[in-house]
């Protein structure tokens, strides 16, 4: 359903700010319903929010996917080195950071 909502929003078209707000609302609903990977996709693809995507994945215990995303975008970790340490457990899963 979230895919259809974002597709329809693009067809209207909504402003970038409105898309961001819609994405946040949809991601919050997805997290509430424990659809963590889908919420992370919304954060990454429609909100360009790597940090929030990683937090959501960690909340759902999808550590491997969180690490894959950050390793793919490693330059980001230079600017935000504490993304994992503050929001993910177990700490040893992120020992290389």
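^ Assign residues to that structure.
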């Amino acid at each position: 359903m979230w895919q259809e909502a974002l597709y329809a929003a693009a067809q209207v078209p909504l402003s970038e700010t409105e898309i961001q707000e819609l994405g946040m609302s949809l991601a919050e609903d997805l997290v509430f319903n424990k659809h963590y990977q889908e919420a992370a996709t919304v954060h990454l693809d429609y909100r360009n929010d790597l940090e929030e995507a990683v937090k959501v994945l960690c909340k759902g215990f999808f550590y491997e996917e969180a690490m894959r995303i950050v390793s793919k975008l490693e330059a980001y970790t230079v600017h935000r080195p504490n993304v994992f340490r503050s929001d993910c457990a177990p700490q040893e899963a992120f020992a290389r950071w």
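The mean pLDDT is 83.
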